[in-house]
Amino acid sequence: MDSRDEGPATEPGAESPLRADGNESCVPGEDSRDIIRINGITKVFGNAPPLTAVDQVSFSVRRGEIFGLLGPNGAGKSTLIRILTTLMMPTSGTACVDRFDVGRDDERVRTIIGVCPQNSTLDVELTAYENLEFYGNLLNVDRDQLPARIWELLKMVNLSDRAHMPVKTFSGGMRRKLEIVRAFLHYPLILFLDEPTIGLDPESRREVWQQVSRLNTMNTTIILTTHYMDEAEKLCHRIAFMNQGRLVALDTPANLKRIIPTGELVEIGYGNGHYDPGVIPRIQAREGVLGIEVHEQLLRISAKNGSQALPGILDDLEQFGITARSITIRAPSLEDVFIYLTGTGLAGGRTE
Ligand code: ADP
């Protein structure tokens, strides 16, 4: 993490190109609960034609929270993370990471952040211990304290018994956990995780989630990108929705779900049994029913209150000779909210 992948690294203390665009100071103001403040960050790639990967994005991340950047592939999440972790210069805008100005104080930014990139950078020929040792030296962790710190972290992720085995013998989940604690070697204030569970099986994903939560209880602010809505919902205190480079919404998962007018979704499966379309206007006319969709063998009814609407809906079905084989009442998911806001789904994402 010594150099940016685009353009020359900024000399410490040198006047940042960012300062030309903004005059935001990184000295914490009264609202010092914010550990990251982003103001109008934009990143444009190329010029034939130019591609705006991140478009005027502004938000703050609170100290100690797990903050999720959620959006489909290509939304601009990784680009934003690369800018915040000093790996890439923005085209315009400013960002403060704690007291340090991204683009101006990059060396100091790097001392307080840990980064776990999307693509693995472990040396698979080296053992777990050697990987951590190598990285610890790179991060200038005190040499006397490094062995104890390595064992502490290996223990934390249940890998102490594999400390001296080459990483190429590890499962995907084990590698990921090792990589996450590697980013934690130097006690960073902020941990950036880019798609931490991509490509992992459900059990490994859960183990990684546990690990992320554990690190968060140690007062570490965690910023993760994901296109898995279940992951964002389970882990994150607040979520920023990104789409086509823009910030679409930012709030707690519960508040995001309140954005769409539907209170609840009542899903009634009628299997291969009798179906009569005459029931639709009858249900539609009921008080508290907001809408109804007919799917194959399934009616999806939007209602202000699902359990209140259900008895009347079941009466209607009975009158039309339709037998309910399954009934589900659920709150709208984050995916429903994302579709409501953007008209597109989190393509490529999935739920368990
Ligand atoms: P996400 O992480 O949400 O999947 P990215 O930030 O990786 O999205 O990409 C956002 C957009 O920027 C995409 O259209 C991608 O192709 C483009 N992009 C990312 N990095 C580069 C680059 N180095 N050069 C040109 N285009 C890029």
Overview of the molecule:
With 352 residues, the protein is α/β, with parallel strands linked by helices. The protein has two domains: 17-257, P-loop containing nucleotide triphosphate hydrolases (Rossmann fold, 3-Layer(aba) Sandwich); 264-331, Alpha-Beta Plaits (2-Layer Sandwich), CATH 3.30.70. It has helices at 17-21, 77-84, 106-112, 128-138, 146-156, 172-182, 202-216, 229-235, 253-257, 279-284, 306-319, 334-342; strands at 34-45, 51-62, 66-70, 92-97, 100-101, 113-116, 190-194, 221-226, 238-243, 246-251, 264-269, 289-295, 298-303, 326-330. A six-stranded mixed β-sheet has the order 6-7-8-3-9-10, sandwiched between helices. The protein has a four-stranded antiparallel β-sheet with strand order 2-1-4-5. A hairpin with a 5-residue loop joins strand 1 and strand 2. Helix 4 packs across helix 5 (146-156) and helix 6 packs parallel to helix 7. The protein binds adenosine-5'-diphosphate (ADP). The site of adenosine-5'-diphosphate has 12 residues, from strand 2 and helix 2.
